[in-house]
Queue: 2 jobs
Job 1
Amino acid sequence: DNGTSRRLTDEEFDRYSRQMIVPGMGKEGQLRLINGRILIIGAGGLGCPAAQYIAGAGVGTIGIIDGDVVELSNLHRQVGHSTSRIGMKKVDSLITHLRDLNPLPTYIPHPFPLTPQNAASILSAYDVILDCTDNPATRYLISDVCVLLGKPLVSAASVRTSGQLIVLNCPPAPQGVLADGPHPPCYRCCFKNPPPPHAAPSCGEAGILGPVVGLMGLAQAGEAIKILASALHLPTHTGEANLRQPTLLIYSYDLAGAVGPYTFRALRMAGRKKTCFACGEGSEGRLTLEGIKDGTPDYEVFCGLNATPKGGGL
Amino acid sequence: DNGTSRRLTDEEFDRYSRQMIVPGMGKEGQLRLINGRILIIGAGGLGCPAAQYIAGAGVGTIGIIDGDVVELSNLHRQVGHSTSRIGMKKVDSLITHLRDLNPLPTYIPHPFPLTPQNAASILSAYDVILDCTDNPATRYLISDVCVLLGKPLVSAASVRTSGQLIVLNCPPAPQGVLADGPHPPCYRCCFKNPPPPHAAPSCGEAGILGPVVGLMGLAQAGEAIKILASALHLPTHTGEANLRQPTLLIYSYDLAGAVGPYTFRALRMAGRKKTCFACGEGSEGRLTLEGIKDGTPDYEVFCGLNATPKGGGL
Amino acid sequence: MGDSAADDSKIPITVDFSGGLEILFSNQRHYALSLPAADKDGSPSTIKSLVGYLLKELIKDPRQDLFVLDGHIRPGILVLINNADWELEGEEDYELQAGDNIFFVSTLHGG
Amino acid sequence: MGDSAADDSKIPITVDFSGGLEILFSNQRHYALSLPAADKDGSPSTIKSLVGYLLKELIKDPRQDLFVLDGHIRPGILVLINNADWELEGEEDYELQAGDNIFFVSTLHGG
Ligand SMILES: [Zn+2]
Ligand SMILES: [Zn+2]
């Protein structure tokens, strides 16, 4: 029994009725959500809206990992926190909000940063991973661990007036396998090398508009919910071929102009690459869970290699 | 003095710092937001996320109008409410949430439905109007009043897995004026006749997915914020020409498939139409604020005219 | 479009449905179609010809009145020709060109 | 593209910037350009030729190293040829065609 045959409680029926009558969701999709486990890495501008809609939809187990505390300058965009919770751990603040929205899911706080040492043990307990973080080193770490654990990854990022979203590693293929492809890409397949540090500013340095990062986080929730509800991460599913055309969604918000043909663009990306460090040919020999724990690769060094600090980045 | 030359308080500086450093916003844009007044009509699936980001951004006066109370079946998508506030007026519930997010704006509750009798007096106190409602009759009413009062209108709608967004009447042109155009369209220019009632189901009847309606509401916040911050609704602004290419954004979420080239589409719409009942040639003779108050046109009849009730709508 | 290029009595076009209209068309949002280049009377195929073709060949749902009323696209459906409102292009009388994309969108009112 | 059609030594293309790269190009996200059809040595214009043209003619910001490092597009910039990853099309050696859209996107990491 995969848990999709039990009855729904009266409260579940009432609470989820409007989404259950959508064609393609139904009781089966709802039970897949209730039995599903999503990890949200980062409780900031992406993680807040993503968490609201994932909790609202009734995903049964929701983990949130973040080591930061709520600050006043977060609140223009991090709408799952509040002025009265400034100084609280972001994870606890967000879960407070989510629990009042929907008390039914199990919320699991991880109130500390994701590290090469703790990543595998945390990610292994979830079905779908959301990368809502804010730095290149953590993004490469998350993707590598997702490849090794076979987890689908919904990755988004946003700075200033731009946003990006891509679903990776879905459905997951074993590391190093290239036959019977194309297989879906990992983060390194799409973004082989990190930018020089001065060209990869954070939202703190370069600024960010709330509706831009919010929209990307909400789109992440939409992708995560469809993956769980339609079981798109399971290799046997008929949706597989569809998800194998990897697409990078680009959002270009224009503060001085209207929505237009360039506002949203869907870009065709390549699949798994033979030359990929993490999932390509021979990758089993260079990327392992044990190695990551022991400091290989060194993500900080990898993302700082090209460091030639200059004023003002992109 | 248009109020954009005062100093920001320390709290404002800290709270809005991350959006103020975005190119194009700056202190001037922030002060335009602080001096701006936005009315959100509908505190449901569109209005909740729109309000969160409009409040977060620091828009100084935020009115919300809705006559409904919070129900359990709202909460999967109406993330500005909560389980503990079930039974409360939606307007009061949402403002409770917003005030904790950002106590600085002035929140104005209108805890009753928008009607032909109260529409003009309410809308006249705001700079930008958001249509976050759920039925055709109210949508035509809002647009007509926006034409007559010269208010820009950010209109969105969502059912099941689809969403739509369009900025109307921006910058506003006087009713009936066709010279020196093209002028921006009103709702009736784009959507001349309502569908037969059985083809226009509500979210309650046809269902709705949280991330779909949420994304449209968030996109509305983005458009409203850019209109205020860049003063795009003022006829003298250089952004005018840009906003005069009216664009209908269509979101087609696919529960069974990945993001792709058809997920977002930007459609070129016509400008103000000579034949438009509300803003076209001779419209001053058939649509007035006094007439609307007195029941002409009758929006219920207009939207029920083609009524031939049948099972299951679109 | 490839293989129909040699047959010049056919026009390859794509047709999309959104806003719920896809439910009438087997829940499929995107179609690649090959239409006769001319109507029976020899005049070039138009949007009107396409609508006739959709009703005859493609619609599976019995609720055809949710798509066409009194011989015309029902109120509340937008028709886009290559991403532009069909009112910019001549409405039903627009003559189809190879490669055209015709997009039918049902207007939404929920929120 | 119109007026350059008569001059067959030019290729009309469009070039877009996103993810912050537009800041280097006068904060403009969309450009319609007319490029020489061949390099000085007579070989067809490629993405590499385009990058040279952008550095010579279009970039206004002195921080050219945010766009090109050691003669190549810097790490952290995606190049899309007609909406597809350039690795699907031959990367810098792709030969430009009339009407091509080349899209440069800086990879984002914030959240
Ligand atoms: Zn890879
Ligand atoms: Zn009009």
Note: The two ends of chain A are 51 Å apart (CA to CA).
Job 2
Amino acid sequence: MPEIAIPPAGATAPVRQRPRRSLRGLPWFALAVLPLLLACAIGGEALLPHDPNGLDLGLAFQPPAWLAGGSWAYPLGTDNMGRDLLTRIMAGTRISLVVALYAILISGGIGTAAGMLAGYFGGRLDALIMRLVDIQMSIPALALALVLAAVLGPGFETVVLVIVVTYWTWYARIVRGEVMSLKQRDYVALARVAGCGTLTIFRRHLLPNLLNTLLVLATLQVGQVIIFEASLSFLGLGIQQPDVSWGLMLADARNYITNAWWAITMPGLAIMATCLASNLLGDWLRDHFDPKRRQL
Amino acid sequence: MPIARRLLHGLISILGASVIIFLISRLSGDPLALLLPADAPPEVIEQTRQHLGLDQPLVAQYLVFLRNAVTGDFGNSYRWQEPALGLILERLPATVELALAALAFSIAMAVPFGVLSAVYRGSWFDRFAKVFAMAGQAMPNFWVGLLLILLFAVQLNWLPAFGRESWNSLVLPAIALGWYPVAAQTRVVRSAMLDVLDSDYIRMGRAMGLPERVLIWKYALRNAAIPLVTILGVYFAAMLGGAFVVEVIFAWPGVGRTVVEAVFARDFPVVQAGVMLTSVLFVLSNLLVDLSYGLIDPRIRHA
Amino acid sequence: MLSVQGLTTHLELRRGMVRAVDGVDLHVNQGETLGVVGESGSGKSMTILSILRLLPRQGGVRLGGKVLLDGVDLLQLPEKTLSSQYRGRKIAMISQDPLTSLNPVFTVGDQVGAPLRYHGRAEGREARRRQVVQVLESVRIPSPETRLDDYPHQFSGGMRQRVVTGMAIASAPRLLVADEPTSALDVTIQVQIMALFRRIQAQTGVGIILITHDLGVAASICHRVAVMYAGRIVESGDVRTLYKRPAHPYTQALLQAIPRFGDRRERLYAIPGSPPSLVDPPHGCRFAARCPHRKPLCDDAYPPEIELESGHKVSCWLASAG
Amino acid sequence: APAPATGSLTVAFGAESTTLDPVKISAGVDHYFVGQIFEMLVRRNAALKDENWLAESWKLDPGKDGKPVLDVQLRKGVRFHNGDPLTSEDLEFSWQRQRDPKSSFFSHYVSSVERFEIVDAHRFRLHFKQPDAQFIVGNMQLWAMPKKYIQKVGEEEFARKPVGTGPWKFVSRTVKDELKLEAFDGYWNKDKRPGIKELTIKVIPEDLTRVAAFKTGKVDFIDNVPPSMVEEFKKMPGVKTVTLVSGNNLFLNFNTQMPKSPFNDVRVRQAAAHAIDVDAIIKRVLFGQGERYAQVGKASNGYDPALKPYAFDQKRARELLRQAGYPNGFDTPCYNLTTPREPGVKEVGEAMYAYLSEVGIRCQVRNLEYGAWISLGKRGRSGPPEMDGVLSWMWSQGLPGDPGLAWSGHLHSYQAGGGWGTYSYTSDPEVDALLEKQRQTMDPAARTALLQQIARLKQERVLGGLPTYRPLVTFAWRDNKIDYVPWPIRDYWRSFQEVSWKSR
Amino acid sequence: MLLEVQDLKKHFPARGGGTVRAVDGVSFAVDAGQTFALVGESGCGKTTIARQLLLLERPSAGAIRFDGQDVLALDRKGVLAYRRQVQAVFQDPSSSLNPRLKVSMLLAEPLLAHGQGGNRAALRARLLELLEIVGLPPGALDLYPHEFSGGQRQRIAVARALALRPRLLVLDEPTSALDVSIRAQIVNLLAQIQRSFGLAYVVIAHDLALVEHFSSAVGVMYLGNMAESGPSAAVFGAPRHPYTQALLGSAPRPDPDHQPAEGLILGDIGSALHPPPGCKFHPRCPRALPACATQVPPMRRLDPAAGAAMPAHQAACHLLQ
Ligand SMILES: Nc1ncnc2c1ncn2[C@@H]1O[C@H](COP(=O)(O)OP(=O)(O)OP(=O)(O)O)[C@@H](O)[C@H]1O
Ligand SMILES: Nc1ncnc2c1ncn2[C@@H]1O[C@H](COP(=O)(O)OP(=O)(O)OP(=O)(O)O)[C@@H](O)[C@H]1O
Ligand SMILES: [Mg+2]
Ligand SMILES: [Mg+2]
């Protein structure tokens, strides 16, 4: 029997004939970047080649090692205060990831709880929670951040608080939607018929089925948190010295963009790589968990 | 949901936002230190304090604020001695224009990207579109703004770097602001398109021999646009918020810049007027979106 | 008129190659209704989609065999020709879920008119409108002039199915393929749709392939019936012969498994087990594992198709062994 | 007569004024905007010489019982932008407006003037309650404001549409965007008229954007060239730059008013003074855009060339600390301003605190945004001061300036209700007395001597903070297009008084 | 009677305003060992009745009595006790089994919820017993639902429903999602369980032949009302309501010599949001009288002779006067 391969209707794209290897679809970029980040974050001080705050004005604006005048002692060059960029980027990894971790755990926790309550019980509780969400969303996040930072003073805790305040609604809305549709599933009704209490239903029937969504949201949030922190830093309200964050480096170096492009580019690339990695991973997870897309 | 109900919810949001912003902005410090010269004597300070009503208890201040706000009176800016509402209203068109332009840019990228990515899913284009879109999501918008200025204004001198003069001064800030949501929007369009392209009615259309372009750009797209349109209100709000930073970079005479500086200066009337107006805008845009997606989704129109 | 020979449809998926359709022979004559019955996942829809080359877009698809419509092999035609000359003209389709086969955001008039427009059969808005009204009238939509501008969700399920049917037959196709056109409808509406099919066939002589999993529906409307199991046709023949003298154990089992009116058996006949996976189907007869008459031979090789009497064909070692 | 003004010019500033009303000025930037439209009786010109401006002449009579009288003859023929002539009544109105706290933030500036006497339309006398030297050095705190106009249109309209006597007439303004001005045809000073018809001042706070605006030719003048780019600008063809010392004086303030503060010990303060390599910071962090000073800047009243800043000497610093009883140093909070108010101020703070830490004054850096910084800098009105360590601070004394006013704010110890020591963390009775004395000394020479005496004490005891540097500000303009004469005085240093198209 | 339902009503507020009269006064009863079937076109309110029986939805009006006790008046404890005796199987096994739980947990859940888990060994023994009842191998305990075929999943659902040894099972289209070949397995299983344990069933189904085969009594619903009800043999043997007749006449049969009759019923299914006045069926009834459009026909008993043991054969139609 002659076997011919013809494209599926409508698609003018060539149909891949090669059998798919299962490794193909993996988010390689993310898998390459994330271990590096984790190593920097977990390795901590021990891995740092220099003191991230060790300033030496004599060393200001050393170019990266591969350029004329650069030295391998400072592979990515130094900033306006003569601090090693590589060291600071590595130190920044830790702060960025810790901020992201706190922000995700807290905003995710609050948002998920609120979303589950609203979605499951509906009615007044739902109305109340959704009004809170509306209120929160109708205040521009940066405005709130500004005012909060003015009250509390800028710094790590403020950044985390602002992100939590901003992002819980994100979780709440999505979780609420999911729970409302999960609630329609027969197994939730049947769990009630079986005599399960509300807590059991939350714990056993809703939460595990939300995990995929939450994992995707959390992964995507890593990138968003980093970008958000950078915006705060731009306004002078992000992470503060002596803590190091990429956003802070970026914001500080912007005045030297024409003198020392590397000082702004290196942390910028770190942000980009991390955000891309987290977004690609989140995207991949989303596709992976979605049975309709999984077959791709 | 009936419009009256929506309006009510909107009002609640605005009111809630006002309480929050009012309270925490008052907690953020004393504006008098910034307002008066260093060596102002205490009488002047006290007098100014009374003059501005800052000697009242917080709740009383809020009630006065609310009563006046209803009539559009947010008080005079402490710094500019002009009515705060006027200051903000004057700047609002610029911010709305920027936010709309950014939104338009993001949609103009996301729709073709999303559609073509879905149609040619798994192709090089799909991957390119994804990386392009995600790049926007992976860069802080002030960095993008600076790079755009360096490239298109300083190096190439194609587009102006600042201000709000002609249409082309809108281009760079709109890109800096509008690139960020492209990824999310592309994803929405792409995944909706994938669903729609797999749907029975598209298959039916194909079985009826309708041209592919009609199926994709007319039949499928209108359906795939629905989820995008439903969240446009949220994106618009995000653009308004993002404008805070981009306006500073591009010296765009908008609300964001004014509010940022007002916060630093503890110029409460301006902060309140600015935030309240953005909230109103947010509520209105969501209302508009609610009303408008009845236009593309007849199921809603007839419900 | 339509002759399908050795059709194979293999889908390349992550989990492996799914042999959804694995060597199917079918033929339909003018004015004839061929029923294809079988369990869910047996490949009925795939067969139809392969005939029209409308397979799902994701993954790789391998099509084999021949689909001859009046002697032209549809599988060899360029996509463009197929789309502009055949689909919606010579072959029309009614897809699996009639309730979702109309686009929710366009008016019914728009959608019925679209094929007319893009196949250039009605120039101008007015002409098209008139034709659409005619189409809707032909499927007995009451007051079509006013319903034209309504959206699908304003129509009941039965009416939507009429609209789709009207659309499909508007171009007077040679062949109409209908994938479970009535499964989502209530019996009272189902009767109406089947009557509509019969009437249309009488008027136009269109050949129909009707897919269903309901043996009752097949019995009431088809001239001939093919029974499909795990990607293959196991038995086919004239509807009376097949229902009265089923030759394949699977057909026999199916007929015994359904309750009938006035028949109060203690137990229904139950077919044990479930159909095999199409990723790695058994070598021999695919029904062997569930077959009450299984012989060693059944596991070794696929039984050849033999013709028991005129038009009644079966693939079973029992039958070939006599 | 000079050629009539033509064409339009666009310039860009990095900051913008909050007000165009002279009695509401609250920040240095306000002057550059107000100064285009309004004028005072006396000003210093481009050559740093005092020049009678709206005053044709003036005379100070020491008066009886220590109550001086200032007798001013107004210039004739001066008109406001709306055509009204300038008369003594306008100045009287101005004085009243300025001393009324309802309209003014500066009532105390004229608080020593008891009575305003109109002699005739162009002559008036100011009668003082007590001598006030600062009034005179403050260019006589009277701005020419149009009485009739303000009374007719009201305060709000005046704030929206200011009318003055200056070379530039107000046209329109959008806050956060631009101020449009037009050369005033009827300007009295025919020699100092702008040769350009329309002037648009754009506000572009982001450095790179302002630079881009200049480079792309959208604007022909910018102020505040970022320090890191000054070299590049100096090399640009067709572009001229001028670098001026700004009116700002930066210093590190120490708390010496808390019982346990290590900075109560003068040796610790001296150690800090020796610990910081200010020159290196100016060179590296500010790209040279700063000028060291000791107590009083060059060309300011009370400048003393003999007074040299403490030398960078870490050994000496450690030694002083040891003597003070801190052989192992100590930890202290150090507050840094993060809002970019002065170029590089945040980085400079970081660097200084790093230097302090090196000798053992271990800084726990706390960052402050602008509003919080201002609040912290201010001495607590009741209760103890909140600033409990080191704070980077600055004060503006005008250019060329006079430190008297500034010192009464941050050097004189705090006096509730007295207007002294608002920002002070210092308390030294001897200096307090001298400060009070200088204010009452109307004789300029005697007063200068007093200021120099205070400066020496201040230097010796490191009082009122440790002076570090005065920022330099660089303006750039397209020299092949416009002629521009910078006036290096605070109120006028971005003034476009003498600007015209390049005569070819 | 084990379960008595009287004049049950459920009205939902509709989205755009108005009321959906999903169930509009339905009465029936079922006794131990008996099967009561509800049939009718989609949207006529069958599932809504089932959900009310399971206390997943509160009736707008009417009474549900279980063992003579008013179910709607039960307190928390009472509800728990009721739930121990009334369990359910739904149409789609893939949505009625939580995909994240292993079969062992799925089966144990009702027991644990009622504190009947006992010790590990006893629990395991009970689970194995349940698996045996529904004909699944013991190894099934450690698998997830997606590892089973549709028929097997429905068996798991049945086993779970049996875990508490209930006295009444509510079966909402238990076989509709299954293929013909599998359907018979489940039907046989359910019948066998009923025989062994003396359970009462309330079953909802579309397949009329199956209902006839399976049920002892049947209720035919139309738009929230009972059109006809009675012993299966009577209703199927001599249907009296024109709707029942149309339903039976329309059903296709696996017999090439039988043609479903056209013309027994007109037009489309009515809407529960805007039900027609009078007899709700009258717009579709080929034999409608003028009175049908205005007067609601009362339920009429058709077999005065029949004993009290069997439910009465009754119908609501003006033609039966
Ligand atoms: N989009 C798809 N992706 C992967 N596998 C598919 C897809 N569509 C069909 N299949 C597989 O192809 C086989 C045949 O499916 P097909 O839809 O033809 O069955 P069917 O007989 O029409 O069943 P049903 O009665 O449920 O409609 C099945 O095993 C199914 O799993
Ligand atoms: N929660 C609800 N809110 C509003 N209307 C509802 C709700 N549940 C059901 N309905 C409406 O009540 C009517 C009866 O629905 P029900 O699901 O009971 O029908 P059914 O007889 O089970 O139909 P099917 O055979 O399709 O399952 C329908 O019109 C339905 O739209
Ligand atoms: Mg199918
Ligand atoms: Mg139902």
Note: The radius of gyration of chain C is 21 Å.
